[in-house]
Specification:
The chain is an all-alpha fold. 73% of the residues lie in helices and 0% in strands.
């Protein structure tokens, strides 16, 4: 089972990666830029596996680049305290 199959698992996975990046000294701007790049890749290349991912993909597809950055930033905020550690 992939972490993309379950919304809670996906948030925990992202939260763990975010914790690791911050512990390694990655600053907020770099994290947010990376979140945007990942969001763009997922929206264009990966089929949504659950309802939440479909909503995000649909929102991403109609958003301007600035709005996509805002979505990515909100995802970072959403997972900040969702890691498994």
């Amino acid at each position: 089972m992939s972490v993309l199959d379950n919304w809670s698992d996906w948030k925990n996975f992202l939260g763990d990666r975010l914790d690791h990046a911050q512990n390694e000294g990655m600053d907020e701007k770099v994290v947010n830029d990376l979140a945007y790049e990942i969001g763009d890749y997922l929206a264009k290349q990966v089929e949504a596996k659950n309802d939440q991912e479909r909503v995000l993909a649909d929102l991403w597809s109609v958003a301007s680049e600035q709005e996509q950055h805002a979505i990515a930033n909100m995802m970072v905020k959403l997972v900040q305290n969702n890691g498994t550690k």
